[in-house]
Design brief:
By secondary structure, this protein is an alpha/beta fold. It has 14 helices and 16 strands. The longest helix has 23 residues. The protein binds pyridoxal-5'-phosphate. The site of pyridoxal-5'-phosphate has 14 residues, from helix 4.
Length: 425
């Protein structure tokens, strides 16, 4: 059956704005019609026409073990038969919170929510409520979900659409949000409640923190009594067994998580020391709640994923990704196109240009490269060879634990052919 992708997308367009429930999925920035996914298994997804793609989207990082991992499927089957939501405490949320606090030094308590957006939004409220201060600092090109106060100078879909923020966000809502360039430690004052940072910027393609950037933020926050918030919605339990703190040796005051900790179901979490978390309702004056928070299915899947991945799995994946990235660079460069694929642990970016360049260090640098038009050609040339990258130049590649060496080699060869196509256009 052909044209099923188009048929499904046409139906989607009729009842869902732009045909998608999250803008980046729409193919707007690369052109064409999205493939509609019927199912996934390991490193692969199949669309409604039965075409198989080697998947580097992996739900934008939510899937670490690959799709439909048998152990996760099994634990979900057990959980679903017990009832899916109660509005009462459940063992699953305790087990997931224990697994996370066990790994991350200084993370004493956390609260589970249903998305990364909610996690960061709640962390900001907590930081303001606990400190009695109003201002928050974020970095240009970092994405922290779509809550009003943080929808300013965001990466990811916001960057692709060329929006400085969003319509519908009032000046008042972002009036206390200060935007600073990534990789420069801003000078703070005592009006600042919190500094939010992606420890590895992974929503403006990939921008690594300079040595000294995160520790500099730590010192500057300490100087003025501001809270340092690591938005680890991508990096948490993907960059490393314990996330960015262990990877970079810098400890924040608050952590935000999402993606990996839900094992493919909707979850987020924010946490920190017992002292700070005691400002949250019902203990303290900062209100925060959620009907489906700590959902039994999501906590079962998340805890299962965390239990299956060891520190050496992360180390091995990081090594494989480092080799993969340099092989992709080599393959692309062999055609005459310039390419840098920066790596941080198992996270990998991809920049293309007709001119030689260095890996960007901030949003301005990333934008110049992401907007040069080469990615859309490269993306489609990869897709036509059965390799699904994210449909936007501002996203990164997610190599899961299910990607085999053969998968990676196939991708390297496909990249050489795709680069030739992109170069000719
Ligand atoms: C994805 C993401 C979010 C938002 O998470 P959602 O689950 O999409 O709401 C927040 N921060 C970062 C760094 C992210 O990558």
């Amino acid at each position: 059956m052909t044209n099923l992708n188009q048929a499904w997308f046409d139906r989607a367009l009729a009842v869902i704005p732009g045909g998608v429930d999250s803008p980046v999925r729409s193919f707007r920035s690369v052109g064409g019609t999205p493939y509609t996914v019927a199912r996934g298994q390991g490193a692969y997804v199949w669309d409604v026409e039965g075409t198989r793609y080697l998947d580097y989207v992996q739900s934008y990082g939510a899937s670490l073990l690959g799709h439909a991992h048998p152990a996760v499927v099994e634990v979900l089957k057990e959980a679903v038969a017990q009832g899916t939501t109660f509005g009462a405490p459940t063992p699953g949320e305790v087990l997931l919170a224990e697994a996370m606090t066990d790994r991350v030094a200084g993370l004493e308590q956390l609260r589970l929510v249903s998305s990364g957006t909610e996690a960061v939004m709640s962390a900001v409220r907590l930081a303001r409520g606990a400190s009695g201060r109003d201002k928050i600092v974020k970095f240009d090109g970092c994405y922290h979900g779509h809550s009003d106060a943080l929808l300013v100078a965001g990466g990811s879909g916001v960057a692709q659409m060329g929006l400085p923020g969003s319509a519908g966000v009032t000046a008042g809502a972002v009036g206390d949000t200060i935007v600073a360039p990534y990789n420069v430690v801003p000078t703070l004052d005592e009006s600042v409640a919190a500094v939010l940072v992606e420890p590895v910027a992974a929503n403006m393609n990939l921008v690594a923190p300079h040595p000294g950037f995160l520790s500099g933020l730590r010192a500057e926050c300490d100087r003025v009594g501001a809270l340092l918030v690591f938005d680890e919605v991508i990096t948490g339990f993907r960059l490393d067994f314990a996330g960015a703190e262990r990877f970079f040796g810098v400890t924040p005051d608050l952590w935000c998580f999402g993606k990996v900790i839900g094992g493919g179901l909707p979850v987020g979490a924010f946490g920190g020391s017992r002292t700070i978390l005691s400002s949250l309702a019902p203990l303290g004056p900062v209100y925060q709640a959620g009907t489906l928070s700590g959902n039994p299915l999501a906590t079962a899947a998340g805890a299962k994923v965390l239990s299956l991945v060891t520190p050496s799995d992360y180390d091995a994946l990081a090594k494989r990704v480092a080799q993969f990235a340099s092989r992709v660079e080599e393959a692309v460069r062999s055609t005459g196109l310039h390419c840098v694929a920066p790596v941080q642990g198992p996270l990998m970016g991809l920049y293309l240009s007709r001119e030689p360049f260095d890996a960007p260090t901030d949003f301005d640098g990333a934008k110049l490269l992401c907007d040069n038009g080469l990615y859309r050609e490269f993306f489609h040339a990869m897709l036509s060879q059965g390799v699904a990258l994210a449909p936007g130049a501002y996203e990164i590649l997610f190599v899961s634990l299910a990607h085999s060496d053969e998968d990676l080699t196939f991708t390297v060869d496909a990249a050489a052919r795709a680069a030739e196509v992109a170069l000719r256009l």
